[in-house]
C-alpha cells in the first residue's frame, strides 16, 4: 500500500505579477496505514482531503472532500494530522493556506508466508500504532480490539512526483495592493517575544514611531510618526479589522484613538501605511494609518484553551484566557483579559478588562463571513507632569504627582460583521459596525493658573485647573467595495470601487474642578454633536509592463457637522443689574439683561477630493522602486464649527520616493527599505498645555528619510529601523516642537530547541530584545529634550503545553523623561508663581520585571 | 549614484538634528535699588510738585515678585485678571526688601527665569506670598522723614500695607468681581523695552519721589505721639495716606525704571 501524494500546481487568488507567492511544502509526512478492518473488503479507493495549513506549518483543519468510506477516511485523516509543512508564503510572509491532498488506498498483496518473529520485548513502531512484544512472540497492537489483527508496517517514505495539477486556494482575506516602500504589513510572529505592554506598542515595529504617555496606563498613547505629533490619534487612522477606532469629536482631541481594548495576543498582523497614499485611507490618515487584523494562529498558542497568568513589579497581575475551537481557522477565537497594576511611583494604578470574540465561516462559492464582538472597561489614575525646577530643588520626587485627582475611565463595546464573496472576476466586500464608547478624563497640566477673575463673578482666588472631561459617543457605520479583475494591455488589471460611511453622536463636556472641594466651578465646554462622514473611492492596480505598475485613484469625502453648544454664552459685558448672572458658567442673558437661550447650534458641511497614486517599478534583482503622491485630510474639531462657515479642514499633501529589497537564501530571508518623504499640512494642530488640547496653528512641512532591514532565519528574527525627519513651520521656518528628529528601533527574537528534553518532549527556548533610541527632541523656546534609550528583554521556555517566561522592561533601569514640555504653570499658589515658560516632564517607567506562566490544552 | 545617496543621507541627518523652535530659556539675576548715585545711610531729599521739600531718612520698600510681559495688558477680562497666561516673558518669583535711599543694587532672593523674547511691559507685585490673599499684613513701605515748605516742617512716618484696608468695593453690584484685591497689589504696566539674555541681569531703579508727588502733608492728622511725628494712617481714609498709596501703585517710569545689564553688578 502506498499513499500517493499530489502536491499541486497552483492558481492563486492574487496575481503572481503582484506578489511572490509560494505554496506550502511538505517537511514531514506519515504514510496512511490501510486499516485492517478494510482488508476483508479489499477496498481500492481515493480519499481526497481539504487540508488547512496554518502559518506555522501545522495542519489545523481537515475536511473530507471525496470519501473512500469511513475507515479509509479516518486512516487518511489520522495520517495527515501528523504531517508538517513549510507554510505558504506571500512576499516572504507566512500565511495559512488550504490544499487538496488525495490518498490512494489499495489493499496489500498477501505475504508469501507468515513468519513468526523471535520472542522479543522490543516495541516495533508501525505506521499507526505501537506493537508490543509478548513472550510467546504473539503480536498485538496497543489498545487493540478484541479481535487480534496484524498491524502492517509502513512502507518507506517515498513521495512521488505530482501526477497532476490541482487548484490551490489561499484562505484568508485578499490583501490590498502595496502602496510602495512605506506600506508595512507585520506578522507579529516571533516578535511576540519582545516585551510590549499593549497593542499600541506593536506600532513600534514600523519605522519612526515614538510612543509617549503622560496620561496614565488607561490613557491612549501619544504617537509621533514621520515628523507628526499625532497626539492620541489625530493624524493616524486606526482601525481593527476595518472597524474604526478614532473618535470623532472627542474633546480631548479630535481623532482620539485608544487601542488598549485590543488583546495583544490576538493581533495577528498589523498593517501600517506611512503617508496618505491609499484611496481607502479616510479621515485622520494624515501621517498614515494602522489597521490591526485579529487572529489566533499557533504562535505557541494551540487551538483549544490557553491560560496565561502574569505577575510582576508594582503589583502587576494579568490573567488571560484564549479559546480557539478545534476545526476552525485562526480567525475564530475568544479571549478575555483581566489586568491590574499599582503602577510605579505615585498615582499610577490601573485596572482593565477586555473581551474579544470572533467567528469566521465559509460561504459557499469561496466566500467568507466574519462576526466580531468586543467589550472593554478600564479605570486608572495618572501622575501627570512635574516641573523640572521643583524636582531639582528636591520639592518633589521624579515619580511623584502634584494632583492625585488625575486619571480616567473608559468603556468600549463594538459589534461588527462582514462578508467577502467572490463572484467571477469580482470580489465583493461589505461590513457593518456599531460602537458604543464612553470616556472620562481628569488632568491638570497647569496647577493654579487658568482661573481668571471675571467682573461678573464673586471675588475668588485661583481655584485650580483640574480639567474634568466626559464623553459619550455612539457610532454606526459601514464600508463596502468591489474589486474587479480584468484583462487589458495583455495583462491582469484590477479596479476597485468602494465606500465608507460613518455617523457619530457625541456628547462631551469639560469642566474645571475646584481643588479644595472637588466640585466643578466652571463649565468650559458642553457640546452635543451629530457628525457624519461619507467617503467614496476608486482605486486602480494597473500593470502596464511586467516591471511597471500604477496604483492609485481618487477619494472624495463629505463631512457634515451639526453641533449644539449648550454653554454658548459664558460672559456678558454689561450684565443685568437686577438679575446678575453671578458665578454661573452658561449664561442666559445678553447685554443689559436681555434674555437669550444658553444654547447655540451650528451646522455646516464640507467636501474634499483627494488624489492618491503610486508608481512601482521592478522588481529588478529583488529591488522595487516606488514614487508616491497623496493628499489626506483631518476633519475639524466640532468646537470650531460655525454656522454655514467653511470648516477649516487640515489638508495634507505628501510625496515619497523609495526602494524595497526582498531576497536572501534558502535559510535566510532579507528585506530592506529606504524611503525619502515630504509632507505639507496647510493648517496644523499644535498642542496647547494651557488648553489641555490641540489648537489650530499655521502651515507646516516635514522632510525626512527612513530605512528598515529585517533578517529572518530559523533561529532568529532581526528587524531594525531608523527615521530622520525635520519638521518646520512654513512662515517662520522654525522647528515644530515635540517631534523627534531621530528614532532608532531594533527588535530581535531568538528561538531554538534547548539541549535537553523533559519526559522525552523537546523544550524550545525563545528570547526577545527590543531597543529604542530617540534623539534630542525640539522643545519650545529653543530647547532640546533629553534622549530616550530603553532596552526591553524576555526569555521563555516552551515545553509541551506549558510556557514559562520572564520579561524585563527598561532593563537598564534608566531614569528617563518620556515627555518633556516648556510652558508656564503654578502648582503652589502659596508663593509667587513662575509665570514664564519652564521645563516640565512626565517620568518614564523604571525597570519592571514580570513572570508569566501559560498553559494550553485541548488541542492535538 | 551611491555617493549622491550618501550625501543626501548625511545632509538629511545633519538637517534633521538642527534647527530651533525659536527664542531661548534664560536664567538671570535680578536687582532693585534706589536712585543712581544715592549714597547708603544718607538721607534723600527732593521737592514735590506741591512744593514740599521731602527728606527721607528711611524708606524700605518690599517687592513680592516682578514680571516682564511680551505685551501691554489691554482692557477686558485682563482688566480684572491678575494673571494673564501667555503674556509673560520673565518671572522673578521671589521677594526683596530694598533700601531705596541706597543706590546700591539689592539682589532678589531668587533668580529670574524667562525667555529671550522682547519684553514691552513690566509688573511689580507688592504683596506677601499670595497676591490673592484677602488680607495681608506685609509692610510694603516703611518710611520716615520730614516734609518742609515755607510755612512748616512736618516730621512723618508711615507703614503701608495692602489688604482689606485697600479694598475697593464694586460700584456696580452686577459686577462683584470688578475690583479684586490682587489688582491693588500690582503695579502695571510699566514701560519696558528689553530682551532678557543668559548671563545678564535685570535692574529696577526706584525713585521714591514719585510716591509723594501728590501728597498734601499739611492734611495729615495732627500727631498724637509725644514725639510730634505725623503718622500716615495706612488706609484710604485720608488724602495723604491714599495718595502715597496711589503713588506707590502708579505705573510711572519716573518712579520705576527697568534696565538690562550685560553682566551682574556684583
Name the CATH class of the largest domain in chain A.
Mainly Beta
Through-space gap between termini of chain A? 27 Å
Structural class of chain A: mainly beta
CATH fold descriptor of the largest domain in chain A: Maltoporin, Chain A
Give the oligomeric state.
heterodimer
The gist of it:
The complex is a heterodimer of chains A (860) and B (266). With 860 residues, chain A is mainly β.
Give the secondary structure arrangement, pairings included.
The complex is a heterodimer of chains A (860) and B (266).
Chain A lengths: L20 E2 L2 E4 L16 E9 L5 E8 L3 H11 L3 E3 L1 E3 L2 E3 L1 E9 L18 E2 L4 E4 L5 E3 L41 E5 L22 E3 L9 E4 L2 E2 L6 E5 L2 E2 L22 E8 L13 E7 L9 E9 L3 E9 L8 E9 L8 E14 L3 E15 L4 E2 H5 L14 E17 L2 E18 L22 E23 L2 E23 L6 E26 L2 E18 L34 E21 L2 E12 L15 E15 L3 E14 L3 E4 L4 E4 L3 E14 L2 E14 L12 E17 L2 E14 L3 E2 L3 E2 L3 E12 L2 E8 L7 E7 L14 E6 L4 E10 L3
Chain B lengths: L1 H15 L8 E9 L10 E4 L5 E11 L1 E5 L18 E5 L3 E4 L6 E2 L4 E4 L3 E7 L13 E10 L4 E9 L24 E9 L6 E6 L23 E2 L7 H11 L6 E6 L5
Parallel strand pairs in B: 1-13, 11-14
Antiparallel strand pairs in B: 1-7, 1-8, 2-3, 3-6, 3-10, 4-5, 4-9, 5-8, 9-12, 10-11, 13-15
Amino acid at each position: 500500500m502506498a499513499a500517493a501524494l499530489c502536491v499541486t500546481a497552483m492558481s492563486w487568488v492574487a496575481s503572481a505579477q503582484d506578489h511572490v507567492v509560494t505554496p506550502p511544502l511538505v517537511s514531514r509526512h506519515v504514510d496512511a496505514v490501510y486499516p485492517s478492518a478494510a482488508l476483508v473488503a479489499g477496498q481500492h479507493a481515493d480519499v481526497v482531503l481539504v487540508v488547512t495549513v496554518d502559518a506555522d506549518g501545522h495542519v489545523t483543519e481537515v475536511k473530507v472532500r471525496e470519501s473512500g468510506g469511513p475507515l479509509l477516511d479516518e486512516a487518511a485523516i489520522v495520517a495527515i494530522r501528523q504531517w508538517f509543512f513549510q507554510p505558504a508564503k506571500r512576499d516572504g510572509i507566512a500565511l495559512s493556506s488550504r490544499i487538496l491532498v488525495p490518498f490512494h488506498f489499495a489493499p496489500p498483496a498477501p505475504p508469501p508466508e507468515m513468519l513468526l518473529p523471535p520472542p522479543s520485548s522490543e516495541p516495533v513502531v508501525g505506521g499507526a500504532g505501537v506493537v508490543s512484544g509478548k513472550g510467546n512472540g504473539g503480536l498485538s497492537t496497543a489498545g487493540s480490539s478484541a479481535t487480534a489483527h496484524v498491524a502492517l508496517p509502513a512502507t518507506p517514505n517515498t513521495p512521488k512526483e505530482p501526477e497532476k495539477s490541482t487548484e490551490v486556494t489561499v484562505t484568508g482575506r485578499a490583501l490590498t495592493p502595496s502602496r510602495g516602500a512605506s506600506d508595512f504589513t507585520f506578522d507579529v510572529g516571533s516578535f511576540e517575544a519582545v516585551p510590549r505592554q499593549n497593542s499600541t506598542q506593536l506600532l513600534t515595529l514600523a519605522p519612526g514611531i515614538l510612543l509617549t504617555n503622560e496620561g496614565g496606563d488607561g490613557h491612549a498613547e501619544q504617537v509621533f510618526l514621520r515628523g507628526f505629533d499625532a497626539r492620541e490619534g489625530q493624524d493616524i487612522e486606526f482601525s481593527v479589522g476595518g472597524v474604526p477606532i478614532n473618535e470623532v469629536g472627542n474633546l480631548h482631541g479630535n481623532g482620539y484613538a485608544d487601542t488598549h481594548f485590543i488583546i495583544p495576543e490576538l493581533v495577528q498582523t498589523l498593517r501600517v501605511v506611512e503617508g496618505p497614499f491609499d484611496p481607502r485611507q479616510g479621515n485622520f490618515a494624515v501621517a498614515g494609518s494602522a489597521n490591526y487584523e485579529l487572529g489566533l494562529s499557533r504562535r505557541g498558542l494551540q487551538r483549544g484553551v490557553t491560560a496565561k497568568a502574569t505577575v510582576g513589579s508594582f503589583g502587576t497581575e494579568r490573567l488571560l484566557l484564549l479559546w480557539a475551537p478545534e476545526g476552525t481557522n485562526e480567525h475564530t477565537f475568544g479571549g478575555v483579559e483581566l489586568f491590574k497594576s499599582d503602577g510605579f511611583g505615585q498615582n499610577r494604578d490601573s485596572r482593565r478588562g477586555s473581551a474579544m470574540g470572533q467567528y469566521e465561516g465559509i460561504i459557499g462559492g469561496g466566500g467568507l463571513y466574519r462576526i466580531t464582538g468586543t467589550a472593554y472597561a478600564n479605570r486608572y489614575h495618572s501622575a501627570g507632569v512635574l516641573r523640572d525646577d521643583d524636582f531639582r530643588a528636591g520639592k518633589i520626587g521624579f515619580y511623584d504627582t502634584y494632583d492625585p485627582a488625575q486619571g480616567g475611565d473608559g468603556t468600549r463595546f463594538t459589534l461588527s460583521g462582514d462578508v467577502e464573496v467572490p463572484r467571477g472576476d469580482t470580489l465583493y466586500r461589505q461590513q457593518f459596525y456599531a460602537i458604543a464608547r464612553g470616556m472620562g478624563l481628569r488632568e491638570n497640566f497647569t496647577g493654579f493658573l487658568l482661573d481668571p477673575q471675571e467682573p461678573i463673578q464673586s471675588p475668588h482666588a485661583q481655584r485650580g485647573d483640574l480639567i474634568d472631561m466626559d464623553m459619550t459617543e455612539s457610532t454606526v457605520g459601514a464600508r463596502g467595495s468591489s474589486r474587479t479583475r480584468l484583462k487589458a494591455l495583455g495583462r491582469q488589471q484590477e479596479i476597485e470601487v468602494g465606500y465608507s460611511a460613518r455617523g457619530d453622536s457625541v456628547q462631551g463636556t469639560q469642566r474645571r474642578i475646584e481643588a479644595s472641594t472637588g466640585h466643578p466651578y466652571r463649565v468650559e465646554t458642553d457640546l452635543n454633536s451629530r457628525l457624519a462622514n461619507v467617503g467614496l473611492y476608486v482605486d486602480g492596480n494597473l500593470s502596464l509592463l511586467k516591471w511597471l505598475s500604477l496604483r492609485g485613484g481618487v477619494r472624495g469625502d463629505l463631512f457634515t457637522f451639526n453641533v449644539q453648544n449648550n454653554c454658548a454664552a459664558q460672559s456678558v459685558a454689561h450684565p443685568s443689574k437686577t438679575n446678575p448672572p453671578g458665578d454661573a458658567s452658561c449664561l442666559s442673558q445678553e447685554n443689559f439683561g436681555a434674555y437669550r437661550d444658553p444654547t447655540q447650534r451650528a451646522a455646516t458641511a464640507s467636501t474634499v477630493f483627494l488624489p492618491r497614486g503610486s508608481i512601482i517599478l521592478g522588481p529588478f534583482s529583488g529591488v522595487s522602486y516606488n514614487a508616491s503622491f497623496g493628499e489626506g485630510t483631518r476633519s475639524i474639531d466640532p468646537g470650531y464649527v460655525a454656522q454655514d462657515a467653511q470648516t477649516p479642514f487640515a489638508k495634507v499633501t505628501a510625496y515619497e520616493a523609495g526602494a524595497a529589497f526582498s531576497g536572501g537564501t534558502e535559510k535566510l530571508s532579507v528585506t530592506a527599505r529606504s524611503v525619502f518623504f515630504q509632507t505639507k499640512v496647510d493648517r496644523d494642530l499644535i498642542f496647547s498645555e494651557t488648553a489641555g488640547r490641540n489648537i489650530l496653528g499655521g502651515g507646516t512641512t516635514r522632510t525626512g528619510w527612513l530605512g528598515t532591514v529585517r533578517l529572518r532565519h530559523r533561529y532568529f528574527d532581526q528587524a531594525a529601523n531608523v527615521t530622520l525627519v525635520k519638521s518646520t513651520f512654513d512662515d517662520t521656518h522654525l522647528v515644530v516642537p515635540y517631534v523627534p528628529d531621530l528614532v532608532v528601533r531594533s527588535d530581535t527574537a531568538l528561538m531554538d530547541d534547548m539541549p535537553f528534553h523533559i519526559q522525552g518532549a523537546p523544550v524550545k527556548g525563545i528570547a526577545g530584545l527590543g531597543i529604542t533610541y530617540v534623539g534630542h527632541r525640539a522643545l519650545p523656546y529653543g530647547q532640546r529634550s533629553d534622549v530616550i534609550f530603553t532596552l526591553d528583554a524576555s526569555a521563555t521556555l516552551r515545553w509541551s503545553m506549558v510556557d514559562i517566561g520572564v520579561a524585563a522592561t527598561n532593563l537598564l533601569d534608566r531614569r528617563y523623561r518620556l515627555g518633556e514640555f516648556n510652558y508656564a504653570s503654578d502648582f503652589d499658589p502659596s508663593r509667587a508663581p513662575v509665570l514664564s515658560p519652564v521645563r516640565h516632564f512626565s517620568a518614564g517607567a523604571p525597570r519592571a520585571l514580570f513572570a508569566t506562566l501559560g498553559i494550553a490544552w485541548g488541542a492535538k | 549614484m551611491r555617493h549622491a545617496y550618501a550625501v543626501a543621507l548625511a545632509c538629511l541627518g545633519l538637517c534633521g538634528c538642527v534647527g530651533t523652535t525659536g527664542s531661548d530659556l534664560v536664567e538671570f539675576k535680578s536687582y532693585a535699588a534706589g536712585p543712581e548715585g544715592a549714597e547708603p545711610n544718607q538721607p534723600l531729599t527732593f521737592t514735590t510738585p506741591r512744593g514740599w521739600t521731602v527728606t527721607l531718612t528711611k524708606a524700605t520698600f518690599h517687592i513680592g515678585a516682578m514680571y516682564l510681559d511680551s505685551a501691554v495688558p489691554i482692557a477686558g477680562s485682563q482688566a480684572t485678571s491678575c494673571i494673564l497666561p501667555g503674556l509673560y516673558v520673565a518671572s522673578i518669583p521671589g521677594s526683596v526688601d530694598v533700601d531705596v535711599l541706597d543706590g546700591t543694587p539689592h539682589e532678589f532672593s531668587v533668580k529670574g527665569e524667562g525667555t529671550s523674547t522682547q519684553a514691552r511691559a513690566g509688573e511689580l507685585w507688592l504683596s506677601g506670598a499670595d497676591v490673592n490673599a484677602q488680607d495681608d499684613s506685609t509692610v510694603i513701605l516703611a518710611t520716615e522723614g520730614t516734609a518742609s515748605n515755607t510755612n512748616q516742617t512736618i516730621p512723618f512716618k508711615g507703614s503701608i500695607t495692602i489688604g482689606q484696608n485697600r479694598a475697593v468695593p464694586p460700584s456696580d453690584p452686577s459686577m462683584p468681581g470688578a475690583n479684586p484685591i490682587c489688582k491693588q497689589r500690582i503695579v502695571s504696566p510699566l514701560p519696558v523695552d528689553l530682551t532678557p539674555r543668559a548671563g545678564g541681569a535685570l535692574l529696577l531703579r526706584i525713585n521714591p519721589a514719585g510716591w509723594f508727588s501728590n501728597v498734601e502733608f499739611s492734611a495729615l492728622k495732627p500727631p498724637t505721639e509725644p514725639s510730634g511725628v505725623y503718622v500716615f494712617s495706612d488706609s484710604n481714609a485720608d488724602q495723604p495716606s491714599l495718595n502715597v498709596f496711589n503713588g506707590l501703585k502708579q505705573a510711572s517710569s519716573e518712579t520705576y525704571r527697568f534696565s538690562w545689564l550685560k553682566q551682574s553688578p556684583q
